[in-house]
């Protein structure tokens, strides 16, 4: 398989990564400036959804949030490595592969949004709190949503390409 030219490669989809980054950082700035920190200051929006301004020192779902600070650099290295790998794949993927390229761009935009938070603030801002009864899913943000959607699209792309090759 020959590599597509730069104009015909998935690099054309980087606009989506930039859009995700801007929406993520913008939403976090609104939350930080408009809300007070912590659970007592949550805004009950729906019977299953709150807006809640919290700091996450770990990764998704607060993984390793109590680890003492070294995790900041680990997650920074992982984010940079993943972004580099996905950019490499986007360069090799034809722009016409919408599912794969949008998946890569969503993950890159989300990873860079959380990376910016981690580097600038020392933590990631989370504010979306979904719950059922007394069970609350860990708070998350737009970047986390984009990363999860991108991962789901990679799985879907695998099934779509598998059916095409059969």
TrEMBL record:
It is a multi-pass membrane protein. Keywords: Aspartyl protease, Cell membrane, Hydrolase, Lipoprotein, Membrane, Protease, Transmembrane, Transmembrane helix. The keyword Transcription regulation does not apply. The chain crosses the membrane at residues 12-31, 70-90, 102-120, 140-160. Pathway: Protein modification; lipoprotein biosynthesis (signal peptide cleavage). This protein specifically catalyzes the removal of signal peptides from prolipoproteins. One of its GO terms (molecular function) is aspartic-type endopeptidase activity. Belongs to the peptidase A8 family. The gene is lspA. This is Lipoprotein signal peptidase. Its main location: membrane. The active site is at residues 126, 144. It comes from Photobacterium damselae subsp. damselae (Listonella damsela).
């Amino acid at each position: 398989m020959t590599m597509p030219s730069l104009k015909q490669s998935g690099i054309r989809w980087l606009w989506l990564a930039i859009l995700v980054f801007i929406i993520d950082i913008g939403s976090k700035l609104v939350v930080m400036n408009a809300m007070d920190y912590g659970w007592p200051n949550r805004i009950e929006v729906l019977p299953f959804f709150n807006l809640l301004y919290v700091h996450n020192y770990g990764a998704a779902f607060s993984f390793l949030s109590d680890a003492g600070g070294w995790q900041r650099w680990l997650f920074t290295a992982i984010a940079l490595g993943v972004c580099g790998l996905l950019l490499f794949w986007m360069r090799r993927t034809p722009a016409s592969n919408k599912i794969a390229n949008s998946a890569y761009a969503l993950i890159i935009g989300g990873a860079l949004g959380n990376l910016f938070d981690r580097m600038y603030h020392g933590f990631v801002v989370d504010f979306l709190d979904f719950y059922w009864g007394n069970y609350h899913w860990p708070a998350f943000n737009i970047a986390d949503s984009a990363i999860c959607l991108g991962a789901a699209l990679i799985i879907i792309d695998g099934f779509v390409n598998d059916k095409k090759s059969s």
